[in-house]
Fold each of these.
Amino acid sequence: MSDAYRPVLWNRVKYIYDAVLICVVVIYILMFLKFSPQFHDVTRTVEVSILRMRAFGSCAYLMLTFILCIGPLARIDRRFAPLLYNRRHFGVLTCIVAGIHLNYVINWYYVFTLVDTDVALLTSNVSFGQALGFPFEVFGMFTLLILVILAVTSHDFWLSFLTPRVWKTLHMGIYFA
């Protein structure tokens, strides 16, 4: 038993939307890498790898925040409706940027550990009882897991396969992210 597969129907608006999204992400990353060191008040310069982590992490956070604002903005002003129409593209790109952030984190902090990198990431900081130094890594992994699930199920095939109610319930998980 299977559902009918329909390929993605690309049009000029989707190409422009995706091109603008990618350009904005690239410009943000480049500007962050160029101007961020000027705002650091430290005695040693910050490593380029750490700057990359911060650039991709902050970019993913800002993208996720903007995705959550698109729905209310489209209800307030109709000019934001095209952003709402292609919001899934934005979400998939957010997942990719967050994955790149994770890749930089693992390759900088956990590449030389004796245990598996995923285990090292989740067990290196277990200070759950204090606010300072709280293990935020667990929240990041949970958020990335939600973003991956949403990116994988963002195609219209999954909307028809899972039924609109299940699909929408699943995609409301973005608010937990």
Amino acid sequence: MVEKAGVPVIWSDDSIIVIDKPAGLLAIPDGYDPAAPHYEPLWIVHRLDRYTSGVMVLARSTSAHRQLNTQFQERQVKKAYLALVVGDPTWERIVVDQPLREDVGRRHRTVVDQQNGKPSVTRLEVLDRFGSYCLIEASPETGRRHQIRAHLSAVGFPIAGDSLYGSKLEILRSDIEHNYPGELQSGEPLLNRPGLHARSIEFEHPLTHKHSLFEAPYPRDIMLILDILRGGARRALS
């Protein structure tokens, strides 16, 4: 993996660039490049929320853009996200099939709306449990704005750090480590954004037509929290 303008590039060829988008980077309109301004204009194939990290694909030609758009529209692209959620589900796997309506109210939330929502499906699988927190893999089959965040909130397990959908704004070390000294609660937060990371994406390469899988490693903030949570789980079992 290399970096361009401070953004890790997972893959680059004549048709596409795949980046590991940092949390906080805003995906900007077609014809511009959020990864490296000195490149030629690029076309955004799909977007991630500003504070979601992870794998993101950009097209380097109108032909590649058109072919990838078709794959997204026909639901041929597979995406997997990692979500650190608040709570401990009783299930191991579920499919959330709840229609969503976007841009609702003053806070522009996405909400479940049985009457006016658009069909929306997300597959959820528990990867690891830590008592009051849980690591979940979320695989959206549709592409609604804030879909994973809204669906997880709807089933009672909001993403850690996602105050828009029911969690605390910041996650402190004292929130996840019960024996951490209370007087240190005001320290630097471990997580001050929704704990959501685009882990992988699979599609047919627009030039070679080969099956392509790209992955982005865990970001530092989520990795640190998981290390602390896993350490606590080991101590509880010892």
Amino acid sequence: MKNTIDYYYAPVSGYAYLGEPRLVEIASKYNADIRYKPVDIIRVFAEAGTVPPPKQPKARLDYRLLDLKRTADYLGLPINPRPRHWPVPVELAARSIYAAIELGIDPHKISFAILSAVYEQEKDVSDEIVMGEIFAELNLDSDQMWSLIRDESTGKALEESTQEAIGLGIFGSPTYMLNGKDMYFGQDRLFLLEHKLSQ
């Protein structure tokens, strides 16, 4: 049976940005499917009792900035650990990813473009003009994308994934669920996910 990785995350998450290229590499190596499931992370935080990063104590925030920077350096990824437009509402970015999925577009293509826009280019991905620029850069059909983004189907997909995450006890981004039962929280646990897939 083919392995499936459900990828629950906020499309403005710094740790999702750091982890997604390796997630794709691991899934390819072990012929596993990734199901992209961006969520309304504020609701996930609230249900799990998680303190959102912007509201965490200064000591923890200072460490987060250090950790993002040194992890990015280790992985060879450019990053501004304190991007100009963070945090921002995730609905537009999430709906865009679900629209791409519905159109049969590789979701990694748009997902990582959105994450890179936040952490490399310091763009506001809650802004329609910015998202339109991303669609153009990726040569996506803007009319089709906007039609689906505004359709209730993408809102329903976002709601369903958010409820799934809450029901599974997910408390942060990114979280990877292997075959619906084994949870791995954080990009720093991808080595354990890979180990499981190798067995």
